[in-house]
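Let's practice the habit of predicting before peeking. Look at the sequence and jot down your guess about where helices and strands might fall. Then scroll down.
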Amino acid sequence: MENEFFLPFHTESVEDREKVYASIKKFVSDQVGDIWSSRIFSISFTHEGKFNTCTVGEKTNVVGETVICILRNETLFFVCTPQRGVIRGMPILVGSHEVSNIENFKNSLDK
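Done guessing? Here is the structure:
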């Protein structure tokens, strides 16, 4: 089942949500370069032998914060939480080669 795009903690209008998403994307791209336009709901990956799933709107066991959005480029996924990629700091970095499953939001582009 595909989920409609949302940002946790942002229940304002669609226009406001899009502005917040664009500002997060810009903040991350200023640090790492180009970001794909795909809107990712969830990724599953294995890092250092440990299986993890990060899903927008849920707490990640990686840092214990709610996932606000997941961005990507050709080689990396960027899991953004309030303190990792949204308000400050670098997002959680996940290598594309570590990812075993990607679930996009409904009507999301692949790239």
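How did you do? The beta strands are 40-47, 50-55, 69-72, 76-80, 92-95, 99-104.
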